[in-house]
Amino acid sequence: MTAEFHTYQDVERAVMQEVETHIVQGRFLTALGNGEFTPAQIREFALQYSYYSRNFPRVLGAAIAAVEPLDRWWVPLVDNLWDEAGRGNPKGYHSRLYRTFLESVAPDVEISDEHVPNYPVGEAAKRAVDAFLSFLKEATTLEAMAAVGLGSELFAGLVMGLIGQGLRHPNYSRERKVNVGFWMAHADEHEPRHYQLCRDVLVEFTEPEHLQAIYRAGVQIAMSEARFYDELHDEMKRR
Hints:
Helix content is 72%, strand content 0%. The protein is mostly helical. The protein has a single domain (8-24, 37-237), classed as Heme oxygenase-like (Heme Oxygenase, Chain A, Up-down Bundle), CATH 1.20.910.10. The longest helix has 30 residues, at 208-237. This is Pyrroloquinoline quinone (PQQ) biosynthesis protein C. InterPro entries: Haem_Oase-like_multi-hlx, PqqC-like.
């Protein structure tokens, strides 16, 4: 049965309900918060998430390519992309920020000058990135904005904050302190602003068919991310 939406806020609540069930209460965040992972498994998480993180500019680029060439559509996405580049400051490159986390849990892995670890990429990370890019390749303008906004940025601050808090569990700092600056910076500042940029556009679409389209795009990408965390959990447990 298809849910009925009367307002954009209805759509937000419906997507967040799925996120709460499948990501916040999912196996990965539950195990992380309980301190269940070994140092080797946290190392694996950091190395695999590196691929997902450094491919997010590609996702934003694909979204920019998918929307109409009108300022209200592409400017919010480019603003988000500009944050990935530290707003022009190399010290703020998100790839460099992520490196500080990666080096704190995988100091034995060689990392290139471009902040790419010399380590095989698993199937979970590849599938998550490919799913997002494939969706955007066929998306309408509204679907592309909803995919980035509701499918990612809506809950990115919450999830990244929970990851940062989980990584502070004493079990993960027995050998060395885990640097969670990357996670907390996104949770406290970057992601809430990124979502607001998308929301300011999406909230203008109030017709039932528009709300349904926004929901379908948002929940599809959100559940793809949920699968990423579930599959990543399984890959980590095999370590």
